Amino acid sequence: MGLEIRKIGVVGAGQMGKGIAHVCALSGFDVALNDVSEDRIAGGLKDIGSQMQKSVDRGVLDAAAREKAIGRISAAPTAKEFGDVDMLIEAASENEEIKRKILTDFTPFLKADAIIGSNTSSISITRLAAASGRPERFIGIHFMNPVPKMQLVEVIRGIATDDRTFEETKEFIGKLGKTITLAEDFPAFIVNRVLLPMINEAIYTLYEGVGSVEAIDTAMRLGANHPMGPLQLADFIGLDVCLSVMQVLHDGLADSKYRPCPLLVKYVEAGWLGRKTQRGFYDYRSGTPIATR
Ligand SMILES: CC(=O)CC(=O)SCCNC(=O)CCNC(=O)[C@H](O)C(C)(C)COP(=O)(O)OP(=O)(O)OC[C@H]1O[C@@H](n2cnc3c(N)ncnc32)[C@H](O)[C@@H]1OP(=O)(O)O
Ligand SMILES: NC(=O)C1=CN([C@@H]2O[C@H](COP(=O)(O)OP(=O)(O)OC[C@H]3O[C@@H](n4cnc5c(N)ncnc54)[C@H](OP(=O)(O)O)[C@@H]3O)[C@@H](O)[C@H]2O)C=CC1
């Protein structure tokens, strides 16, 4: 008998955890949402409600469906509340130590059969699986940002992920109405192996004075038909996440072509992480984004 997935536990109520909780609840799954503090979780629940309200206001979501979905999401401040979840999706910060600690803290409270998925952008699924203590039930489930809008979910099997876990995960993603692509477990998988070096190169282009922030973004939006310019996208993803992915590529593939741009490092060191801190390649504090270079 396969596992019937009804309830999802999401660890991390940042931009990705909120998006994952949002789409799971709208697709009829119960959701337990965890973060480092009750305030963070409450903030996450509020943001999900506002995001869904925008869809209601635009006429693409029924108000009653919004209410039902919100009613399916509960705050889960500790690992103990994860005892009845069928799948845990780890969506905490892109830092291997943090992810390992979450896995060792949460796994003892999970049902023996529960699947553990990680939304990591770049870190080895095989290594995280080993830290979870149940590598055969561990899998990479890499959603794209913004989760409610983006069609793709990259699925990554670790070396020990069994067929049952893979099939049940595919079925779950299908129920979310998303499309799967399968990537092998190499640093940053497919999307970020291609996308992040492009973004890093855009930052080098800025660093070397080839163009201003606006020139680079306009060039790629209008010249390559990208929906967002690469610096705008970097701010949207989060510059901390961009830097972590480049470090994983640089360390994991040992090729200087993945060297993180020093300007990216400087922005992260300044705490200018993009939209989430109101400042990155653009300053968002006045409401209208203003280029910082
Ligand atoms: C780093 C990684 O590990 C992997 C990654 O995710 S890499 C990043 C991948 N993502 C991208 O490349 C995004 C590129 N940008 C885009 O595709 C578009 O600019 C965009 C989809 C973000 C916005 O497009 P747009 O046409 O301006 O959107 P807009 O009309 O404002 O909104 C469209 C929908 O998206 C939703 N949306 C937009 N931004 C959102 C956000 N930050 N969070 C949640 N939903 C959001 C809107 O609510 C709206 O939903 P409804 O139709 O239900 O109302
Ligand atoms: N941003 C993107 O475009 C994408 C990101 N991802 C991946 O998704 C994951 C989350 O990224 P994103 O949502 O952008 O990051 P955010 O920084 O927006 O959110 C991460 C959240 O995790 C919380 N957190 C940190 N440690 C713990 C912990 N021990 N227990 C519970 N929660 C914790 C953070 O709290 P605090 O801030 O207090 O530390 C924060 O609220 C990362 O692995 C990232 O690589 C995947 C696809 C796209």
Automatic annotation (TrEMBL):
Residues 7-183 form the 3-hydroxyacyl-CoA dehydrogenase NAD binding domain. The record marks H142 as: Important for catalytic activity. NCBIfam families: PRK07530.1. It comes from Methylocystis bryophila. NAD(+) binds at G12, A13, G14, Q15, M16, G17, D35, E94, K99, S121, N145, K276. One of its GO terms (biological process) is fatty acid metabolic process. The keyword NAD applies. The keyword Ribosomal protein does not apply. It comes from the Bacteria. Residues 189-284 form the 3-hydroxyacyl-CoA dehydrogenase C-terminal domain. This is 3-hydroxybutyryl-CoA dehydrogenase. InterPro entries: 3-OHacyl-CoA_DH, 3-OHacyl-CoA_DH_CS, 3-OHacyl-CoA_DH_NAD-bd, 3HC_DH_C, 6-PGluconate_DH-like_C_sf, 6PGD_dom2, NAD(P)-bd_dom_sf. Belongs to the 3-hydroxyacyl-CoA dehydrogenase family.
